[in-house]
């Protein structure tokens, strides 16, 4: 079937199999391999992207369901000149990653979380990221990074 | 993991969906949020020939104050129910439970209709609507019918819906206070090992998650409460007549014990909230 999807501001139309998952569409058709496939069972959050501004796990959506929608992936976060998005900058500064595998999904989940809770408490950050697993950091620095990003004054609400 | 091939059709209305369902009800499945169906399809535990995507049917996502009850559109997403002002004011149990489902990503996609129609005994929302004496409104080729929640959950992944019917609305009684929800799981994001939804506003209702092949009421507890028993006495009868399963997470015996503990906590909390 034909799907037209806007990804990071660019709209393209492609013929895809009806059963193609959104994550495979992003990686294989759009060539955006920043979105990782972790558990493939909707648990780990590595494949999190934004659909119309809200975090979703792209391993549990069909590309067909994204037809006509707007998707933002990790590649759409930094400015065109490479300046990191404030959330990415905060992860960098607070060492919110080690191996980096969960990071793209984490950053996208955080973008959605901070839209819903612009001034989150530590508990809200921890609960808001319950859909994203990190096996290196113990979460501590991720939580610090999110709180710093929220209070950086650089996020457009 | 990739699902087996299927034909995909996007419904623009309930009529579209019902028409396509009627063509071949046994191999056609509705797709709402897809957060129960797609995981099953990826595991090839479900292999529908036709998928009718109702996710964008307009007019079925709402939480409305309907006087003596609250009406909820079947396509209302968990997140929208969680933050609905109407739900928070009149059925805070439902708003709270919607906020306990899975994680934010799951709540951004999953719908109440999908959760109820799926009929999974481990799901949270079925227990909440059972405790709120919900009425399910289903549309089908034979017209519209109303099904009481106590007749709706039939067995493991089985409800009173016919294969050619679509759940369109859920009506719950108002219960602004005197409610509690207890969910016991081992890790964030997990399903409940056992869960309890209790409503003491009006006739006491206590519904249980994961205490049988489907969502069930704790009839023994309800009877005891009606007869004036205190929370501990009523909770002792929580698993009367029930047959919880044993699995990776817990034995049946452990579940029975947990039900007693959680029902007691829920009753104490609900009574305190009633004031
Ligand atoms: C990682 C993960 C964690 C989860 N954790 C929890 C949890 O803790 N608690 C919990 O309760 N749930 C949990 N869920 C399930 C989640 O709540 C699902 O969203 C919900 O069970 C199904 O809703 P859906 O809209 O996604 O339905 P779908 O997956 O689209 O559909 C489910 C079934 O219902 C049918 N259906 C859908 N809508 C209708 C309708 N209107 N009329 C008739 N039939 C219909 C479909 O044909 C299908 O058979 C979890 C899911 C995931 C992936």
Can you lay out the helices and strands and say which pair or pack?
The complex is a heterodimer of chains A (157) and B (275).
Chain A: E1 2-7, E2 10-15, H1 22-29, E3 48-51, E4 54-57, E5 70-72, H2 86-93, H3 103-116, H4 122-128, H5 140-150
Parallel strand pairs in A: 1-5
Antiparallel strand pairs in A: 1-2, 3-4, 3-5
Helix pairs in contact in A: 2-5
Chain B: E1 7-10, H1 14-23, E2 28-31, H2 37-42, E3 50-53, E4 63-65, E5 69-73, H3 78-83, H4 85-90, H5 92-98, H6 104-109, H7 112-118, H8 125-131, E6 135-140, E7 143-148, H9 149-152, E8 153-155, E9 158-159, E10 166-173, E11 179-184, E12 194-199, E13 205-209, E14 216-217, H10 219-226, H11 231-236, H12 252-274
Parallel strand pairs in B: 1-3, 2-3
Antiparallel strand pairs in B: 4-5, 5-10, 6-7, 6-10, 8-9, 11-12, 12-13, 13-14
Flavin-adenine dinucleotide (FAD) sits between chains B (29-37, 39, 74, 101-102, 106, 109-111, 113-115, 117-118, 123-125, 161, 166-167, 191) and A (42-43, 60).
Verbal overview:
The complex is a heterodimer of chains A (157) and B (275). By secondary structure, chain A is of the alpha+beta class. Helix content of chain A is 31%, strand content 15%. In chain A, strand 3 and strand 4 form a beta hairpin. The longest helix of chain A is centred in the C-terminal third of the chain and has 14 residues, at 103-116. Chain B is built from 12 helices and 14 strands. In chain B, the strands form 4 sheets. Chain B has a 5-stranded antiparallel beta sheet with strand order 4-5-10-6-7. In chain B, strands 11-12-13-14 form a 4-stranded antiparallel beta sheet, sandwiched between helices. In chain B, strands 1-3-2 form a 3-stranded parallel beta sheet, with helices on one face. In chain B, 35% of the residues lie in helices and 23% in strands. Chain B has 275 residues and is an alpha+beta fold. Chain B folds into 3 domains: 7-53, Uridine Diphospho-n-acetylenolpyruvylglucosamine Reductase, domain 2; 63-173, Uridine Diphospho-n-acetylenolpyruvylglucosamine Reductase, domain 3, CATH 3.30.465; 179-274, 2-Layer Sandwich (Enolase-like, domain 1). Chain B has helices spanning 14-23, 37-42, 78-83, 85-90, 92-98, 104-109, 112-118, 125-131, 149-152, 219-226, 231-236, 252-274; strands at residues 7-10, 28-31, 50-53, 63-65, 69-73, 135-140, 143-148, 153-155, 158-159, 166-173, 179-184, 194-199, 205-209, 216-217. Classes of the chains: A alpha+beta (157), B alpha+beta (275). The complex binds flavin-adenine dinucleotide. Flavin-adenine dinucleotide sits between chains B (29-37, 39, 74, 101-102, 106, 109-111, 113-115, 117-118, 123-125, 161, 166-167, 191) and A (42-43, 60).
